[in-house]
Specification:
217 residues, mainly alpha, transmembrane, Mpv17_PMP22
Length: 217
């Protein structure tokens, strides 16, 4: 499961980097996709609203080339998925034992699992993701605080749009040994979203230099 989680995390980040490459290549050509005409833009329009790139900020000598693939970023996502798999699996085991599903009370117990998962583990998981990724990228306490302030609440709202429905199916129909692979498979799109969100925030912060603190005594 750890290896599977790592591979799926790598696939998700590859998808995210591919989307970014396509959009940056379009910008280098002087064309900004219209969300009404571009199927990719339709899917990620809302996720990409904070895209910090524009023509003036691209490297002039590389206008005809796609951005380089970030293998360090890929490694971070795979390592995160690898390390989080045991935590997620134990959490699913805990939910299974705490809310056993029977033929007479299947739906009610499944909904209790979903409620606990979304109210307890989802907020914890997102905070862990942004914190770990920021630290792995070399950020300190200030960078972590900034990332959580800017990205945590919007991402948590997006989580509540997708995952309650997914977890109803997961807890109601999937045996516990298949719950993590099922979540990880569905999570390819979600992890790609997280990758885009995390990268967009990093790029936006990179283009805004830290200003010296001014004290008025």
């Amino acid at each position: 499961m750890m290896v599977t989680n790592a591979v799926l995390g790598g696939i998700a980040d590859t998808v995210a980097q591919t989307i970014t490459s396509i959009r940056e290549r379009a910008l280098r050509k002087g064309y900004s996709p219209n969300p009404k005409d571009d199927p990719i833009a339709i899917e990620i329009h809302e996720l990409d609203r904070k895209n910090p790139f524009n023509e003036r900020e691209l490297i002039p000598d590389s206008k005809s080339l796609p951005p380089p693939f970030d293998f360090e970023r890929l490694t971070r996502f795979m390592a995160y998925g690898f390390c989080m798999a045991p935590v997620q699996f134990k959490w699913f085991r805990f939910l299974e034992k705490s809310f056993p599903i029977s033929k007479t009370n299947a739906f009610g117990q499944a909904m209790k699992r979903v409620a606990f998962d979304q109210l307890i583990f989802a907020p914890f998981g997102l905070a862990t993701f942004f914190t770990v990724m920021t630290v792995a990228e070399g950020g300190g306490r200030r960078a972590v605080t900034s990332k959580l302030r800017d990205m945590y609440v919007p991402t948590l709202k997006a989580n509540y749009v997708l995952w309650p429905a997914v977890q109803v199916v997961n807890f109601r129909l999937m045996p516990v040994q298949f719950q993590l692979p099922f979540v990880s498979t569905v999570g390819i799109a979600w992890t790609a979203y997280l990758s885009l969100t995390n990268a967009a925030e990093d790029a936006q912060n990179d283009r805004i230099p830290d200003l010296p603190e001014v004290r008025l005594d």
